[in-house]
Amino acid sequence: MICFDKETVDKRREILREHLSTGIAEVTFNKVDGTVRVMPCTLDSSIIPPAPVHVTKTKKTNPLVMSVWCTDKSEWRSFRLENVISIEVK
Description:
Elements (H helix, E strand, L loop, with lengths): L1 E2 L5 H12 L4 E6 L5 E7 L22 E6 L4 E6 L3 E6 L1
Antiparallel strand pairs: 1-6, 2-3, 2-6, 3-4, 4-5
C-alpha cells in the first residue's frame, strides 16, 4: 500500500498512472462531499473496453483530476488528485 501525504499533485499523478496502467488497484480518496471512497480502478488498456465508434465527445482536461476506469461500476470515474489518501495494488 502506498499512502499519500505531502506529494505534489504531479507526483501523485505519476505514481497512480504507473500502478494503474499495469492492472487493477484500489484507490482510497475523499469524495467532494467529504465521504471516503475505496474504488477499484485501472488505466490498463487490456482491461478497459474499447470506446464506441460513434462517441465524439471531447472534454477539457483538468490537471487536478484523474479519470480512471472503475471496475466495480464498469464506467469512467474521476477523483481529485489532492484528495487521494492511498493506493493498494491488487
